[in-house]
């Protein structure tokens, strides 16, 4: 069995903030990966929180894998079946209405990123390479 550090890392507070940073799933994933080397009660609690409540499945799975490696009895998170952020259609509609009638999907994506980086980032992380295709489909239906 792999050996883990049992003391909190010096940069724990910074990593804790990073793990909860809503505007970047990459930052959260990075923090989860760094924290997974330390088997401490505070870190286990933080990882359980990310596993259960993160909007991006990649972050949830990284937290899950770390917890399993620690020997924790946890259930593997499944990808969200519906919108990962409540009210997504309303947010998208508000963004679309703020643009000129002849705007493109690229204009829409850019404005969404500026107005609601948290939403943009969460779906980008969740959809991966299919993100722009998915966004274009949603945009066209509005």
How would you characterize the overall build of this protein?
This protein has 142 residues and is an all-alpha fold. Helices cover 62% and strands 0% of the residues. Helix 1 (12-19) packs across helix 2 (25-35) and helix 2 (25-35) packs parallel to helix 4. The protein is elongated, with a radius of gyration of 18 Å.
Ends apart, CA distance between termini:
52 Å
What do the pLDDT scores average to? 94
Report the strand count.
0
Query: Which sheet architecture does the biggest sheet show?
Result: none
Shape: elongated
Q: Beta-sheet strand percentage? A: under 5%
Number of helices: 8
Poorly predicted regions: none
Q: What is the H/E order?
A: HHHHHHHH
What percentage of residues falls in helices of 4 or more residues? 55-70%
Estimated radius of gyration: 18 Å
Structural class: mainly alpha
In terms of topology, how is this protein built?
Blueprint: H1 12-19, H2 25-35, H3 41-53, H4 57-69, H5 88-97, H6 105-115, H7 117-127, H8 131-141
Describe this structure in a few short sentences.
The longest helix is centred in the N-terminal third of the chain and has 13 residues, at 41-53. The protein is an all-alpha fold and 142 residues long. Helix content is 62%, strand content 0%.
List keywords for this structure.
single chain, 142 residues, mainly alpha, 8 helices, elongated, ARM-like, HEAT repeat domain-containing protein
